[in-house]
Amino acid sequence: MKHLLTLLFCLSTIVLVAQNITNGDFESWTDTGTYKVPVGWKTNTSTFIAFGETVFDTSDAQSGDSAAVVQTILATGTSNYYAGILTNGSIRNDSLGLDGTAINYRPESFSGYYKYDAAPGDKALVVLYMYRFDAGLNRDSLIASGNARLGPAATFQQFSFQILNTDSSETSLPKPDSYVILITSTDSLNSPQPSKLTIDNLSFEGVVSAQVPVDVSEVVIYPNPVSDHFVLSSPKLSIASVTILNTEGRQVQIQESALGTKELLINTNRLSTGFYYAQLRFDNGAIETRFITIIK
Fold it and tell me: Model confidence over 104-151: pLDDT tens digits?
């Protein structure tokens, strides 16, 4: 059996300056003399260069002159595959997380474009971690995250995911001071053949306040447990949208509403029995997360 050794690193306020992802379009590269590395990013190519480049540049871009290819490679003379890693972070000496890039605002979502030549059943993985320094613990604490698993795509496709609090009971929106992006060519531990991900034009979308004065005490979801639908009632706040996420944080349904909506019916017929999070977004920018149970 072929074994894949996949390295996954363990990883209010008014916005004054809003920067986007450094070299998120992968237009700038540094040549080491043996291989190239995108400026502002790190790869694991040096570890496996004897077998090939895990990350390299390509002119086959979604836009601009270049994009990044992250690929799973075969170790010559063995049956071991090694996942390509692309990250803007680095391994911390204290093993508590990842150093990353400074940020001074809280984005709503993360998006990008990709193509993926995948081994059967394989998926690529894009993960975002957002940290804030905790003076009491004297280390960074993970406060928000999001991820996407990307399936096969012969042409460039857009992906996007919301950035959610890691503590689902947290009703405020803590502002991060750094972020780490981790991209791997596979999320599989038993890939039958190499997979190749082309990634381009990564960006943050939207800005939310770190603290929004909001009274959600009268916001109600009923019935809960849910069978085929539930009603969201919000007497004080107008509802902008409702996003349903599974326990892995993956978006499974979204419903937007008209301006000024105070009551909204959400059909859940296509969702299977299980536990979900309903992320409620209001017209004033506030976000509230509620736990729901669906029983068929």
Answer: 888 989 999 999 999 888 999 999 989 888 777 777 788 899 999 999
pLDDT of residue 157: 96
pTM over 0.70: no
What homologous superfamily does CATH list for 3-205?
BT2081, beta-jelly-roll domain (2.60.120.890)
For 33-57, write each residue's pLDDT tens digit.
999 999 999 998 998 899 999 999 9
Instruction: Give Cβ neighbours of residue 33 (< 8 Å, ≥ 6 apart).
Output: none
| Domains in the chain: boundaries | 3-205, 220-294
Alpha carbon distance 7, 84 (integer Å): 8
pLDDT of residue 115: 98
Residue type, 127: V
220-294: which CATH architecture? Sandwich (2.60)
Nearest to 88 by CA among 20, 181, 19, 8: 181
Taking residue 12's Cβ as centre, other Cβ atoms within 10 Å add up to 13
